[in-house]
Amino acid sequence: MAFLPDARILVTLKAGGMVIVSADGATKTPVTGVPAVVSSGQGGLLDVALDPDFTTTPWVYFSYAEPGSGGSGTAVARAQLVGNALQNLAVIFRQSNYGNGEQYGSRLVFRPDKTLFVTLGERQRFTPAQDLAQTLGKVVRINRDGSIPAGNPNLGGSALPGIWSYGHRNPQGAALHPTTNELWISEHGPQGGDEINISRAGQNYGWPTVSYGCNYGDSYPGSDNTSCRIGGGVHAPNFIEPLTYWVPTSIAPSGMAFYTGALLSEWQGNLFIGAMGGPLGPGVWRLTLAGDTVAAREKLSFSLLSTRIRDVRQGPDGALYVLTDGSGGRIVRIAR
Q1: What strands, in cross-sheet order, belong to the sheet with 271-275?
Q2: Beta partners for 314?
Q3: What 8-state DSSP symbol labels residue 319?
Q4: Is the pTM of this model over 0.90?
Q5: What CA–CA distance (Å, rounded) separates 272 from 287?
Q6: Is residue 273 domain-resident?
Q7: For each of the chain's 336 residues, which pLDDT tens digit applies?
Q8: What's 34's DSSP letter?
Q9: 8 A C-beta contact, residue 165 and residue 171
Q10: Total domain count for the chain?
């Protein structure tokens, strides 16, 4: 979801559609001009974000599974939103490898300097997350036209200049911290080991060398997965420890948002994360923070949130908006 300046909501649909939902939620209008999308497995039309200068130059940015030789890859395009149509479309980023229909990552977040973060999954290929000559399992930072900005880390050798951080598995949530302006991301672990991290320049987050999760097929007794954690689980000192993680099973984290509004004042400064499943069930998690430390976390118990969550955003009215998926997909507004 992305909120337009008049409070209407731009929403992407997995199969390749994009719609504009009215501010009151009563109507939705299709958007034309979306390019061809591979809707297979976890692929489809993915995230959407507005240009920081949208009110004067109405560019819309979106990520999607783009067809290519050998499968599909994560691509990012931009186009001008004119009425209900996308015009002057251009692809500004293409993943350096194509493959199967899994783990695209794909979140889009603008920094205050108007450069764009793109999160990229490793497409279940494991080792490329550590290969700096490709963008699988990375966060990249690019300019709005796709060029490489100054200030990216110099990782040496054959490292691609767009890479910001690496060693990620499948970051499907991302949000900029409202005070520090650092990029926080949620990542899927394998069997357990979902993580929250701060993506910092040049840092390595360890996948697939270490994880607090276990490889698929590994079994463990009850709630103890310590014996099968990948690489022993502990990331430090060679890699960056996650701020928090879920074990022994996954919650399948998705979109995320920091709450800064006044409508739900007791939640100011909290981080909200969508979850798509796992034994704890789908829903929305609320994380209480103390600086960069996760002090507490709880799963919200609203009945309308007991389905797969794709995105969480703060609206211009100060409410939280939650996007669910599947045949019963809806936008849920959380307010007083």
Answers
A1: 253-258, 271-275, 283-290, 293-299
A2: 320
A3: -
A4: yes
A5: 6
A6: no
A7: 999 999 999 999 999 999 999 999 999 999 999 999 999 889 999 999 999 999 999 999 999 999 887 788 899 999 999 999 999 999 999 986 677 788 889 999 999 999 999 999 998 888 999 999 999 999 999 999 999 999 999 999 999 999 999 999 999 999 999 999 999 999 999 999 999 999 999 999 999 999 999 999 888 877 889 999 999 999 999 999 999 999 999 999 999 999 999 999 999 999 999 999 888 889 999 999 999 999 999 999 887 887 899 999 999 999 999 999 877 789 999 998
A8: P
A9: no
A10: 1
Cβ distance 7 to 315 under 8 Å?
yes
Contact 140, 159 (CB under 8 A): no
Task: Provide the residue range defining the domain that includes 226.
Answer: 2-250
Instruction: Establish if 306 belongs to a structural domain.
Output: no
**Would 292 be classed as within a structural domain?**
no
Cα–Cα distance, 86 to 322 (Å, whole number):
25
282, part of any domain: no
Residue 164: CATH number of its domain: 2.120.10.30
Query: In terms of Cα–Cα distance, which of 84, 271, 89, 254 is closest to 176?
Result: 271
Half-sphere exposure of 256 (CA within 13 A, CB side): 32
Enter the tokens of residue 138. Answer: 């990375």
Cα of first residue to Cα of last residue in the chain, in angstroms, is 21
